[in-house]
Amino acid sequence: MAATIRDIRDRTGLSLATISKYLNGGNVLPRNRKLIEEAIEELHYEVNELARGLVTNRTKTIGVLVYDIQCIFVGNMLHYLGQALHENGYGMLICDSCNDAEIEAKNLQFLLSRKVDGILVFAVSLDGTFLEAAKKAEVPVVLLDRAFRNKEFDCIEIDNRTAMLRAANKLIRRGHRRIALVASDIEYTGMERMKGFEDALEDAGITIPETYLVSGRHSFELGYQGVKKLLRLPDPPTAVILGNYDTTLGGIMAVNEAGINCPGDISIIGFDDLLMSKVIRPKLWIISQPMEEMSKKAVELLLKRITHEEEGSPLRISFSAVIREGDSIRKL
Questions:
Q1: Distances (CA, A) of 296 to 84, 147, 227, 332
Q2: Which residues in the chain belong to E strands, given as ranges?
Q3: What's the first-to-final CA gap in the chain, in angstroms?
Q4: Which DSSP string corresponds to 132-172?
Q5: pLDDT value, residue 51
Q6: How many angstroms separate the CA atoms of 227 and 247, rounded?
Q7: Rounded CA gap, 294 and 296, in Å?
Q8: Which end of the chain, C or N, has fewer beta carbons within 10 A?
């Protein structure tokens, strides 16, 4: 049979009140803490988190809403979030919204019903109204990667606009004027990256045809079909920037199928320094997000909101992306 709190009492000689105080996160004398921890280990006692949650109003569980669990960027972020939460004694409950705002809203209700202590959100919606239920329940929320147009929540992101501006400038300084972009015009990150691209062209006095802007929802298909479309143009671009990791995968596939040379025929800048960028040749120029640092900061901020160490207006924390050099840009 599983050990009980009474078994710990019998082993340590301490009162049930002292043991319960320790198990519920309270402070006890160092010698008592040592006795309790030794007894827990010897007896293989397991804390009943649900029962403890009734006392402390905490479940030590964080909900994570993701827009698409198949997205490799999301998978890597979940890895780092899981590490940071584990280090702080929390578990996570992940819900996949399947790029569907209705599913996202239902997933939020599911997490609230499970009494999670806080929620990390990779949002599908551009509108944060669906998170009002979390506010009403006083469950802290931190957004990752994407902000909202109409609602203010704590948010951890990169400066997408500046990252894309800097990437476009890398091409402009190397003599490129016929530059294309494949990116989302639906998701927050893509729209911000498009703005940065347009900023760079405007600053340099460059005008490109509308056909050089390929948009949709960030996906392998967008990158694949988008680059195929660009390569079929009568006057194709000399360079293309791919707006996220999935579009980068699709774009590289399209270039390989076309049998053209990179960077000889077309120069490429991709997004996210993940597995692909380490194995393909030529080595890609890559816009790299600090995923581990972003994840740690998101967990740190959420836990401070839970414990009320951090109070006041929502915080928006932007990290800088790094552009890692490769061999995929030709100097004209």
A1: 6, 18, 35, 41
A2: 61-66, 91-96, 118-121, 141-144, 154-158, 179-184, 213-216, 239-242, 267-271, 285-288, 316-319, 322-324
A3: 75
A4: HHHHHTT--EEEES---SS---EEEEE-HHHHHHHHHHHHH
A5: 53
A6: 9
A7: 6
A8: N
Q: What is the pLDDT of residues 19-39, one digit of tens each?
A: 888 887 678 898 998 999 898
Q: What is the pLDDT of residue 49?
A: 57
Name the token pair of 162.
């500046």
pLDDT at residue 109, as a whole number? 96
Tokens of 271: 């997004």
| Residues in the chain, total | 332
Preceding omega of 263 cis (within 30 degrees of 0) = yes
Upper half-sphere CA count for residue 19 (Cβ side, 13 Å): 21
> In the predicted model, is pLDDT for residue 54 greater than 90?
no
Scanning the structure block, which residue is given the tokens 């100097």?
A: 331
Query: Residue 137: is its pLDDT beyond 90?
Result: yes
Q: What is the DSSP letter of 176?
A: -
DSSP 270-315: EE--SHHHHHSSSPPEEEE--HHHHHHHHHHHHHHHHHTSS-SSPP
**pLDDT surpassing 70 at residue 143:** yes
How far is it, in rounded angstroms, from Cα 241 to Cα 213? 10
Helix ranges (DSSP H) in 44-71: 49-56
And the tokens for 111?
Answer: 């997490």
Tell me what pLDDT residue 106 has: 96
Residue carrying structure tokens 């000889």: 264
> What is the predicted pLDDT for the residue at 50?
53
Q: Which residue carries 């078994």 as its tokens? A: 7
pLDDT value of position 58: 72
- Look at residues 242, 141, 237, 240 and name the one whose alpha carbon lies nearest to residue 189: 242
Tell me the C-alpha distance between 49 and 61, whole Å. Answer: 9
**Could you tell me the two tokens for 33?**
């803490």
d(CA 119, CA 105): 13
Residue 73 DSSP SS3 = helix
**pLDDT at residue 24 in the model:** 72
